[in-house]
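Please go through the sequence line and token line underneath and see whether the fold suits the sequence. See right below:
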Amino acid sequence: MKNLSFLFAAILFWSCSDDPFKTTIAGNSKTLAGQTIYLKKYSHLDYMEEYMLDSTVVDSEGNFAFSLLNTEPALVTIDNRQRPPGTYMVLRDRPDHYYYSFCEKFFGFDPLFYVEQGKNYNIAHWNEKKDEVTYGDDRHNVLRDYYKSINFRKFVDEQSASGQQDPEKVWGQVSAHRDSILTKLNFAQDLRNKSFENYLRTEIELGAINEFLAWNYRENPNPMEEEQLEQILEAYNNRNWNPNSIELYKLTEWYISHQMNKQNGKNLYYYEPSTEKIAMAEKYANPRIREKFVRNLEVLMERKEGTEMAENNLNKN
């Protein structure tokens, strides 16, 4: 019976490979046998929308499979909980915490795939109780290893704890650390806008910038001069960054705040949604994410205004 169950899962998985419009994800998790698991999209720009894609029951031998049609390159995650992905909850309910380091906390535990249309993906081993996931392809094992082992925030904090407060020197250390990671990975550099390789490069390069900016704005008593900061932030406009990356979202917030700081003579790391911020986003946000980014600001502003109105009415009563 065990062999028949495995054979069925294998046939289901490989039979999908003939359809150029179908994306399949199959795997095995004996610790989840008999449980319902959920396939969710992980779009950092769609955190106000529905995230659930599909669900299935893991069979008695631990086998499961999902299939998607007409899939744009995107992040998806699988777990046995119906709650929204972690970033959705933060960006929706605490948008001022956009700078938080999501990688290890949110991306390094449950299975995470960067899926492309017509391709097959496999989880060779998944034990959620022991936080163990092994993928059937090297690229996703590299991605998981990055999220589990690379922590730019920890690196920045180590520089600060050693007494280093000079922002230019800290940035030099962070950028050197970033370059060593890219050199070590040494994967084929497919820099098409929505390729897997460009997704990982975007996460690494912009992740380094974002963690430095979080330290520089919020923790450093001697922030970097505007001219040097401008040079670092210009990376935002230098390349076709992958729009699926949370790091692009975070750098958009930093970049817009920087533009508003220059206009208002301030040094803030975050501005609440407002007509002024929406105007800045329409002018400065990356064209690949601008429409959705502005839409989210509008929704957040409407929610804030609604909450304030309800509180005022409550106080009057």
About this structure: The CA atoms of residues 86 and 106 lie 6 Å apart. The first strand starts at residue 22 and ends at 28.
